[in-house]
Amino acid sequence: MLLISVASGPTAFGAEGTSTLTDRSVTWPTWSQWQRVLTFRDYNSRVVILGTAVLGCAGGLVGSFTLLRGRALLGDAISHASLPGIALAFLIASAAGLDGKSLPTLLFGATISGLIGVAVILLIRNLTRLHEDAALGIVLSVFFGAGIALLGIVQQTQTGHAAGLEAFIYGKTASMGLADAKWIIAASGVAVTLCVLLFKEFKLLCFDESFAASRGLPVLLLDIALMSLVVAVSIVGLQAVGLVLMIALLVIPAAAARFWTQRMAPMTLIAATLGAISGIIGAAMSALFSKLPSGAMIVLVCTAFFAFSMFLGPQKGILGRTLRRLRLNRKIERQHLLRAIYETLERDASGVPDRFREFLSMQTLLPVRSWTPRQLERTIDRAQDDDLVRFRDRDQHVRLTRAGVNEAARLTRQHRLWELYLINYADIAPGRVDRDADAIEHVLEPEVVAELEDLLQHSPSRVQVPESPHPLDHGGAEDSGSGAKISVDDSVSDSQETSP
Known about the structure:
Layout (H helix, E strand, L loop, with lengths): L30 H8 L4 H26 L5 H22 L7 H25 L4 H25 L10 H4 L7 H20 L1 H9 L1 H6 L4 H39 L6 H25 L5 H19 L5 H29 L13 E2 H8 L3 H13 L3 E4 L4 E4 L1 H24 L7 H6 L7 H11 L16 E2 L2 E2 L22
Antiparallel strand pairs: 1-3, 2-3, 4-5
Helix pairs in contact: 2-7, 2-10, 2-11, 3-4, 3-5, 3-10, 4-5, 4-10, 7-10, 10-11, 10-12, 11-12, 13-15, 13-16, 16-18
């Protein structure tokens, strides 16, 4: 039989050569050993990989709900709370003349102890003013301390000894047999089935508990059901990764999936897939490198997936967020440029649309936003790529295109709608309203603009630009605010312009 974490030779597959018990060297597996693991030729490797894959799938699925529920440490507290039950089950079974190390007996004791831990958490949360994180910390530390004390008592009894029980603390995947795998598959199957059947209810419970209660859902029963699923997955996972590392299978796959999507259904699917793949790869790596413990390898593979997701996840990954922020900053800079050109020309426009197509020097625009020459050049180049401005290199002058006039008018109008709203409804002084509106306008949705129009009674039929409610000040020049009103329908086409 293949032993994954305990090697009798240089590898776990009995290759030629001998090694002593004190040998700590790690040998690189041969090609034949890679083939044996990757093709699942050995019976024990098939059992272990199947059991860890199913456990990882169930852990990722259940962990998705606990993560969104704000109870990421619930699995950790429950797995630690199961230790006293394991020790008590051993003591009671040994005193009754039964096999104290029978896996069903120990798991039954762990389940009872875990459920008691859940009940204590709920009691502390509902009967005291302590937050749930305090209840989790209390249960975790107190129950684990009681378990360590009971293991000390087990070690001193004459009816048995604690050898083998420490596997529930650190995990011992290599000793997993077919019966153990069946327990894992049965419990995980029940957990997955209940999650699928109660998906809508659990989803409401995670995102809006009050709304779920208003819809007549039994919130307390659903909460207990979710906790019971965490207990079931945690207990059956003790044999694989141990109570110390079980929290990784409940938290890391779900946290990694959160970087890839903002929808609940895809998140649970991704988390379950990552958990299963982590179990497969971790167990296979432990089979290839016999002195690497399986539980630790499974957790490290989960961590690798999490790191990859954290940096490259399209929704909330660091790289994706950085790129979106960069695009937003460039968009804001472009909007500032268009509005600066528009408002600079607006002071002398006198209602003539062609006036908004005249060239302005860069020196005129530099004081408007305290740009540096290099920053302004980059912004103009990007706006020119979008066909919003035209830049004349020989004398460093810039003007708006037809599309640029339309966009600049829209942006200026949107900005002044916010200014009017802040002055009339938020009691913001006209002298400081410009910057306050500037912090909001770049993320306006069309629905918000429509609401502002209705509120301020501006007709949306034409993109009319309201007069500025405060004096325009660009580089020290002030105006009375009687800006020209121009609509997008009034702008001329590029074909009508004359060459400068």
